[in-house]
Amino acid sequence: MKKQTEKQKMLAGLAYDAWDEVLLAARNQAKLVCHQFNQLSPLDNDKRQAMLKTLLNITGHCHIEANFFCDYGTNITIGDNFYANHNLVILDVCEVKIGSNVMFGPNVMLSTATHPIDPIARRNTEFGKPITIGNDVWLGGNVSVLPGITIHDNTVIGAGSVVTKDIAGNGVYAGNPCRFIKPIT
């Protein structure tokens, strides 16, 4: 049986060495593109959009305000009509799927990355769990979405929420931990 690369292990959600030279080079390239994107004039929208398309898997209209940061970019897929306000952070060691007609407030953080609880294991490895966000979702400002979470369609997540469990959709959810508040009527 052929040995898996660190990248294959990472994408599969297995423990991997984040300092592997192939992964480090890919992260550095993504961080360079993010840095260049963040330095562009807000009036240079065509160049900003072109840079995003080299970094992310975008299937339609997408507008992300600076500053934007990600680990790899290639593990992020974004549907049509996406808007993210300032300071979006996506740690995409595993796949991040974002549907269509989705809006993020400022300072949203999606993290597929996590670490072992055991301190010895944590020194040398990390792993990840994918995040999926459905269609017609709005994440308010300062929302954090933890590894392995699915947020289903037609959902509003209130500002400052920490999403620790899957969200069923068709409602307003808020809090830390995030919980159902009311249906969308």
From TrEMBL:
Family annotation (Pfam families): Hexapep (PF00132), Mac (PF12464)
Top EC class for this record: transferase
Known EC number: 2.3.1.-
Gene3D superfamilies recorded: Hexapeptide repeat proteins
Keywords: Acyltransferase, Repeat, Transferase
Domain called Maltose/galactoside acetyltransferase: residue spans: 7-61
Recorded superkingdom: Bacteria
InterPro entries assigned: Hexapep (IPR001451), LacA-like (IPR039369), Mac_dom (IPR024688), Trimer_LpxA-like_sf (IPR011004)
Family: Belongs to the transferase hexapeptide repeat family.
Name the UniProt record assigns to this protein: Acetyltransferase
